[in-house]
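Researcher: Please translate sequence to structure tokens.
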Amino acid sequence: MVDVSSIVLVQERLDIVRTLFEVIQNLEIGMDDNLVALYGYDTEVHEIFDLQSYLTKTSVLHHIQSSGLLSSLDTKRTDTDAAVQFLVDSALTSQHGDRVNFADAVVIFGDSVTAHNTHVTVSNRLALEQISRDVIVVSVGSGSTNDNLATDRNHILHVPSSSSFDTVLVPKLLELLKQC
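Model: Translation complete:
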């Protein structure tokens, strides 16, 4: 999930898309391996593609590059609680391709500006913990992030500048995802 209301993330759009691309290139994708979904959120959730949409690495990579993710800034407001509720109630269900015999991992891209305005209800946070083995929070830009969603402190990845995407974020994100 990517906070599409974030001016910081819009400014770092190319690095975020490149990071997603590099991570997917290094994972096994398919019905017997990993499946990928991509959602943007601001005051509502925007499905880019769900788990059943693209079942090969090539098709996932193509659609990440052509998705237009973060290509425009609409609201400058965000509702992380609604996004988490969408994950729990919809995205991570069998109707959207979730498979009960495979562990789920959720990666949430945000920034410190929107993190300070984020409120996630205890019930939604606990429900997400129940259905996802790993919740990784990626904080882009300066400042702290909302860490109450992450599985633990090791699942909070801070990217202070563009140069950190390749050197810090991609290797750490792959390490965490491959442990799932």
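Researcher: Any highlights?
Model: The first helix runs from residue 7 to 11.
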